[in-house]
Design a protein that fits this description.
- The protein is α+β, with helices and mostly antiparallel strands.
- It has 35 helices and nine strands.
- A nine-stranded antiparallel beta sheet has the order 3-9-1-2-8-6-7-5-4.
- The two termini are 17 Å apart.
């Protein structure tokens, strides 16, 4: 069988033979005599993506890419080298810092964050103080990720005009420590150009140190609604009783992010014990039970748990749960609020929910039972002994995996040593339930090594076919190895087998990290033979090469209306193309909104409903550098070592502090008001995608392509 290295060498040499991209050979002319320069460029970019996924530095491909006349190819080279752990890649990136194209220089600066060394720090500091603003901003962010103190970064900018300094520093403030961020953001609010005001305000408000609270309180009067909302949330988490009047005053604003944040902050202050629940707020909460904005409505319902000494509020929650015409997300939120607040009727309503037809209500019943037991322990509720355990026990054998997963998590809260439950869950037929178990075992490693692997006949690779679940098993094995030294030898052997034999590079990498954490020796990293790799990566290269004007449109058709999204696949092409392929295959059709964090985001795309599921494959992790300080971004979470799955997050407010591994898929161009009305349990009826570049599919924009039931080329690229 031909090795991957041989395949890469042959492919790159064929590019030179065809007249494309060699350092001394002009690109071939477009025409019948041979492939066009554009086709050859896409082939080379496909090779770079393959190298990136395999973690392999191939000098011939790197040389051809470095000599390419196309800046986009050199940018792709920089991104690939940033994820390849090889000192030769660092040297090439340092060379690219002097490239003629600004985008290449910026990409190289960003990628150097993956190659920490004194020479890299010195080079990035020089770029940060240079004339190229785009590269300088990328260098500042890279220095922050490498742990450089803000004071040293500012020193490299000495002599630059003040407004220009802020343009380079403010976008990266979220990467520095809270103390450094506070000082710089305070100055930026006073001195930075107007276009940086929101970023500076969010940087000051987000996770501020205690001494920053006076400045955060001033932000409650800021002109930007998102800055006011961020300040309110910070005061809820860190503020004092004196902040109650300030937050109450925000409830007079029109529905929107500040109102949601004020409600959440008031609830936090009460539940932290900082202040007693103000009775005058009950009418304000009741008035928002019927708000059109789902975030406002659910925030009011959830906050009512802190006010349940009020009979009128309790009756309103009970009525909302009992209303069959109310959105199922509202009913679940009302049930959870009643349980958290220890309402007298909570136990009866939990029993009703456990017998409900909708799985979201049954899952909420499991979570509510655990909450009610916690309230009883605190003396906030009376509960008949064993009723919570009885309800959860019934839900542990529910037909729906999401309900069983919720019941399993509740059981871990209800029982001191749920070892038998863990054993039963290990044999569950659903990968989603087993994945939930592995996540719970991360904190409570109850199962012995033999119990973790025995359901698979001693080989965990055979049973756990989903990459995400195998990665979660690795985490559970690592946690057990840390907790039980006597089992560490057997666990190391299992991890070595996974690191050497798993078909997914991301899972192998997770096993290698676990081996290192437990003091083991990881086997040498290997690359797969080249079976069908290049066709898969050509599709990724095509989508990454699409301009903004040629980007593919998505349309999310929901029960509440339509949401239009313009995709942007340039920074995270593998994950973005995977989403588009899944949409064209109908994967997202009829899935439910599984999560809403009021005023922050809605999430969907996990068919298991647990937050741990995926489409049966994952693409390797990607990054997309800065997220714009905008609402309406559609994101894919690639932060798991197992890579990018299928779960999408739609931001209802700017979150520029999210890590680089939460990658941009696109932006909402119409229908953000529809997104604000979505609640958990609402259905995404279908997701329509336009034609993919070089997909060979004829169809109108927004029209479904052929229903291909395989995972598509990205499944092969991930393997």
């Amino acid at each position: 069988m031909v090795s991957l290295r041989a395949l890469l060498l042959l492919a790159s040499l064929s590019l030179v033979a065809c007249g494309g991209l060699g350092p001394s050979v002009a690109p071939a002319a477009t025409g019948a005599s041979g492939p066009s320069a554009q086709d050859l460029d896409l082939e080379l970019r496909a090779l770079l993506l393959l190298l990136e996924d395999r973690g392999l530095f191939e000098p011939t491909v790197v040389a051809q890419s470095l000599a390419s006349p196309r800046p986009e190819t050199r940018e792709a080279l920089a991104r690939a080298l940033g994820r390849i752990d090889d000192a030769r890649g660092r040297d090439v990136l340092l060379e690219l810092l002097a490239d003629s194209a600004p985008g290449v220089r910026a990409s190289a600066a960003t990628a150097l964050a993956g190659h920490p060394s004194p020479v890299v720090l010195a080079s990035l500091s020089a770029i940060a103080g240079g004339d190229d603003r785009e590269a300088a901003a990328a260098a500042v962010a890279a220095l922050a990720r490498l742990g450089a103190p803000l004071s040293e970064v500012l020193e490299s900018l000495r002599g630059i005009e003040s407004a220009e300094v802020w343009r380079r520093i403010v976008p990266a403030l979220f990467r520095f420590t809270a103390e450094e961020r506070f000082e710089a953001a305070s100055l930026a609010l006073a001195e930075a150009p107007a276009e940086l005001h929101r970023l500076a305000g969010l940087a000051l408000a987000w996770r501020s140190p205690a001494r920053a609270l006076p400045a955060v309180r001033e932000l409650l009067g800021d002109q930007d609604s998102f800055v006011r909302a961020a300040a309110a949330r910070t005061l809820g988490a860190q503020g004092a009783a004196g902040d109650l009047p300030r937050l109450i005053a925000m409830l007079d604003e029109p529905e929107g992010p500040p109102v949601v944040a004020a409600i959440v902050a008031l609830q936090s202050l009460v539940e932290r014990g900082v202040a007693a629940p103000p009775p005058e707020l009950v009418p304000a909460l009741l008035a928002r039970f019927d708000a059109a904005d789902a975030s406002v409505r659910l925030a009011a319902i959830e906050a009512s748990a802190a006010w349940l000494l009020d009979e009128e509020l309790e009756a309103a929650l009970d009525a909302r749960f009992a209303d069959p015409e109310a959105p199922v997300g509202d009913r679940a939120a009302a049930l959870l609020a009643m349980a958290r607040g220890g309402a007298p009727r909570a136990a009866d309503r939990i029993a009703d929910a456990a017998a409900a037809h909708h799985p979201l209500l049954r899952a909420a019943a499991a979570r509510a039972a655990a909450r009610l037991r916690a309230a009883a322990r605190l003396g906030a509720a009376a509960i008949v002994d064993g009723i919570a355990e009885k309800i959860v026990g019934k839900l542990l054998v529910d037909a729906d995996p999401a309900v069983r997963s919720a019941a399993l998590a509740a059981s871990f809260e209800l029982e001191a040593e749920p070892a038998q439950l863990a054993l039963d869950a290990r044999s569950d037929s659903s990968a989603a339930v087993r994945g939930t178990l592995f996540e719970l075992l991360r904190e409570r490693p109850l199962l012995a090594h033999g119990d973790l692997v025995r359901p698979a006949g001693g080989d965990p690779l055979e049973r756990e076919r989903a990459p995400a679940t195998r990665r979660q098993l690795v985490v559970a094995l690592e946690a057990r190895g840390r907790a039980e030294r006597l089992e560490r030898g057997a666990i190391l052997e299992t991890l070595e087998r996974i690191a050497a034999g798993d078909p997914e590079r991301a899972v192998r990498a997770a096993a290698r990290w676990a081996l290192a954490a437990l003091g083991g020796e990881a086997p040498a990293a290997r690359s797969h033979p080249g079976r069908q790799e290049l066709p898969a990566y050509r599709a990724v290269a095509a989508i990454s090469a699409a301009s903004v004007e040629d980007a593919v449109d998505l349309e999310l058709v929901t029960e509440r209306g339509r949401i239009a999204v313009r995709t942007d696949c340039r920074r995270a092409p593998k994950g973005c193309l995977s989403v588009l392929q899944l949409a064209r295959q109908g994967f997202y059709d009829h899935q439910t909104i599984e999560r809403l964090e009021p005023g922050v985001e809605v999430a969907f795309g996990d068919p298991s409903g647990t937050g741990f599921g995926d489409a049966g494959y994952r693409t390797l992790p990607e990054t997309s550098a800065f997220l714009p300080a905008e609402e309406g971004l559609l994101l894919l979470d690639c932060s798991s070592p197992a890579g990018c799955g299928s779960r999408l997050r739609l931001l209802l407010s700017p979150q520029p502090w999210l890590p680089d591994e939460v990658v941009l898929v696109g932006r909402v161009t119409a229908g953000l008001d529809v997104a604000r009305r979505l609640v958990p349990g609402d259905r995404v009826l279908e997701v329509l995608a336009g034609d993919l570049p070089h997909s060979g599919t004829a169809g109108r924009q927004g029209e479904r392509g052929p229903r291909i039931r395989s995972a598509g080329p990205l499944a092969r690229a991930a393997g």
